[in-house]
Amino acid sequence: MNRKNRMRRKAIFSLMVLVMVLSGCSLPSNGEELVPEELHPDDEITALVLEGDVQLQGIEVFGAGTHWMTHHETYGHELLPLSLLTLFLQDVEEKASGRELISFSIADKMIDLEVGTAQYYVDGEQKTALGPSFKNEVESYVHASVLQQEMEHVSATNEGYSMGEIPEDSMPTSALRSFLGELGHMTLINKMHGVEREKTGQHLINLNETYPQLKLTKNDMLFNEQAAVALQEMLDEAADTEGMETIYVVSTYRSFDYQQGLYERKINQYRTQFGYDEETATIEAGRIVAIPGTSEHQSGLAVDFTSQTMMNRGQVLEQDFLETVGGAWLVENAARFGFILRYPSDTEEITGIMEEAWHYRYVGLPHSLLIQEGGFVLETYIDYLKDVGALAVQLDSGERYRIVYVDAALADVIFVEDAFISVSDTNEGGLILTMRIDQ
Ligand SMILES: [Zn+2]
């Protein structure tokens, strides 16, 4: 997507949410002068020759203020990959550079780092860093002290480097982990992006037992634990709305075995009733019933609704649901609770599923609002995040979020704290990190 399109997209968002690049955020200045310490004595640094690859064993990211710790045998947590900084800060722009020079602009300053030495230049003025920066075939590693010296909101602590103010209570309290390959709120599940049996069936609760006040059309419905909290809040508010009719939950989690059973029954039906051969029966069944692993209901994050009007008509899952009081309320309000209408009209070419007025998917805030306001479906929204890399979002309510798309190439060395609002494998080659930024 070119810059112009990107700007237009952003203009669309500004209808309701304010999207700003991180450079626009007013982050607190730490105000302290950096005092160089003897981390790497100068003579050792300047004599250092870049040999082989610089490889980081891991990158940890944690807390609301985006706190970093990188692991490298020689340089501890001093080296930060420039590509990742670009994602988190979005005002780091890498310029043309060779093996000897890493050249980029940040905070309106032009910085040239001499690869493998402690020398660097800010707008032509020579300075000395605490250690060398490196460049290899795929990545530029910037010494953290350079950023700390040149950017007001970057500071060093015992925990690593902070990319903004960290509230006391957001310091790491739980284990950091990779999240790669795990089913999450932003996991894409469609005909092209299936999930394996082993990844399904986790973090589920029994809706009937946990939320007995919900109106369910059958017993023992299972649903994602976090999505269920939002579901309960949403249907509570609906019930309190004047002139509202009862909204029923018709279908939630489906196990792999259940989907497999549905699929096989359909194939058998085509073979016995229509006399199709196995290949034709399999193809035809796949058009009606989702192939096991490709139904969103297997995630525990998808839910089908119906309303009293539809129940009275004996039509549970029909397009007319949109025109009922309950269906219309959901279209208007679901995004405030983290849900999206997953298969809207005129999107079949992208989603592979015809319009379904009853099928909602939990993606969480602020993604649901961004998807609704931007006119996206999950597929195009993930593409958009991949394209912009990082976003800072402020909702009308004043809540601020930071969203970062991390490519799979880096995703397997990134470890993220549980406390992030959500960290989700997209199932298409990346991770989406969502952070709530506390004021
Ligand atoms: Zn459904």
Describe what this molecule looks like in 3D.
This protein has 439 residues and is of the alpha+beta class. It has 2 domains: 196 residues, no CATH class; 128 residues, Muramoyl-pentapeptide Carboxypeptidase, domain 2. The protein is built from 14 helices and 25 strands. A 6-stranded mixed sheet has the order 12-13-3-2-23-14, with helices on one face. A 5-stranded antiparallel sheet has the order 1-21-22-25-24. The protein has a 5-stranded antiparallel sheet with strand order 5-6-7-8-9, with no helix packed on it. Helix 7 crosses helix 8. It is elongated. The site of zinc ion has 5 residues, from strand 18.
List the helices and strands and how they pair.
Blueprint: H1 3-13, E1 18-20, H2 42-46, E2 58-62, E3 67-71, E4 79-81, H3 82-89, E5 93-94, E6 101-106, E7 109-114, E8 119-122, E9 125-128, E10 134-135, E11 140-143, H4 144-150, E12 154-157, E13 160-163, E14 176-177, E15 204-206, H5 207-210, E16 222-224, H6 225-239, E17 247-251, H7 256-274, H8 278-288, E18 302-307, H9 308-313, H10 325-333, E19 339-343, H11 348-351, E20 356-362, H12 367-374, H13 378-388, E21 390-394, E22 400-407, H14 408-411, E23 414-417, E24 422-425, E25 430-437
Parallel strand pairs: 2-23
Antiparallel strand pairs: 1-21, 2-3, 3-13, 4-11, 5-6, 6-7, 7-8, 8-9, 10-11, 12-13, 14-23, 15-16, 17-18, 18-20, 19-20, 21-22, 22-25, 24-25
Helix pairs in contact: 7-8
The chain binds zinc ion.
Zinc ion binds at residues 251, 297, 302, 304, 359.
Features:
25 strands; Muramoyl-pentapeptide Carboxypeptidase, domain 2; 2 domains; alpha+beta; binds zinc ion; 439 residues
